[in-house]
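Notebook p. 47: complex prediction with phenylalanine.
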Amino acid sequence: MLQNIEKILEEARQFNAETREEIEQFRIRYLGKKGVLADLFKNFKQVPAEQKKEVGQKINQLKQFISSRIEELILAASVEVTGKESTDLTLPGPPLQLGARHPISIVRNQIIDIFGRLGFTISEGPEIEDDWHVFSALNFPPEHPARDMQDTFFIEKDPDILLRTHTSSVQVRVMEKEKPPIRTISPGRVFRNEAISARAHCIFHQVEGLYIDENVSFADLKQILLYFTHEMFGKDVDIRLRPSYFPFTEPSAEMDINCQICGGKGCNVCKYSGWLEILGCGMVDPNVLEFTGIDSKKYTGYAFGMGIERVAMLKYQVRDLRLYFENDIRFLEQFQAAH
Ligand code: PHE
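Predicted complex, structure tokens below:
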């Protein structure tokens, strides 16, 4: 009898089932009214008195084993022996993969937020532009190298149609349409025919700003850029303005901030200078005002433009620009939007 019980236990151990029918058959075979266990209990009467204790314990163990094995199988198959599909409503749902905002969107929103607090509106314009809005109205001489095929994506059939290389084109559209005072920023995607590397991409994002009113001065520009830098990078970050050249601003400057990668000590990103360029700016050239129908004797204005990738790179210490475009979830999920 004991040997028989061991054999049954071994059989039950080996048993596996996936469908509810199989499990039900297993249950009937062992625990049913005419099942294996019922037989054992029947035969129990004939067991000699001195063995009854041991055999009784073994049969009970076997019964327990089979009951818990059935429960296990049911759980695994997630079905009820009664035949109905079961859903355990107390189980937590399968985890959802939550998306995160792209770092470029986070930084763009922060820039919009900072300038929004200073009264700047948002302007948008087309990505496919014409020569007038991207170059001519911005005082680019006809032979200016920036119009060169190497920088600009032209449409083969018509050299007048091109992909905008900066969002200054949006500012031209605003100046043509609106009367001063004008205070607006233009975030958007821009295109340049450049080889893709850690530092350059043929598609990137800019935010350009424009303020036109009576008596706007370079000091106003400097103040607003300092405010922006402190809001974006923190109060302890300094700015430095270097004279530069843009056809549409006079005077023109480029702005550097303390290198956020090395903290100003010098590294290969800032070429050991401790400073990194983040934007171009200047006073709107009177020619541009006149081209767009604004009286340059009455009004002055400033403009600035920055690359969002660059700002994000410094803020998050990303050394390779290509990461922004590869859409690798392991990269993207590291950024948290503050709002
Ligand atoms: N449009 C310039 C660029 O794309 C940036 C800029 C904007 C410079 C406004 C001066 C003033 O590089």
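Notes: The beta strands are 121-122, 128-130, 154-155, 158-163, 182-191, 203-213, 239-246, 249-258, 275-284, 300-307. The chain is about 40% helix and 20% strand.
Next step: compare against the earlier run before touching the bench.
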